[in-house]
Amino acid sequence: MATVNVRYFAALRESLGGSETVDIEPGQTLGQLRDTLIARGGAHAAALARGKAVRCALNQVMADESAPLIAGAEVAFFPPVTGG
Fold it and tell me: Membrane-spanning regions, if any (predicted)?
């Protein structure tokens, strides 16, 4: 088991807080991490739901949900348009 640091921005930050550490399985992708967070239910399910437009970054680089995660990575979730 490894961990990643997940950060939330804009409206997601208001719903979920600034950041959290999440345990991941080896070989897990960014999309699978999103699904894991959605499965928690509550605010995570509402904010990260599959019908919502959510952008992702991995180690401060925009990434597709197929990107593989590594231990210690920084993952960011944010809406497509964020304000200054």
Answer: none
Rounded (to 5) percent helix, strand, coil in the chain:
25, 30, 40
Residue 84 lies in a domain: no
* 29-48 pLDDT per residue, tens: 999 999 999 999 999 999 99
- From the centroid of its chain, how far is CA 16? 11
- Is residue 48 assigned to a domain? yes
What is the pLDDT at residue 7? 98
Is 31 within the bounds of a domain?
yes
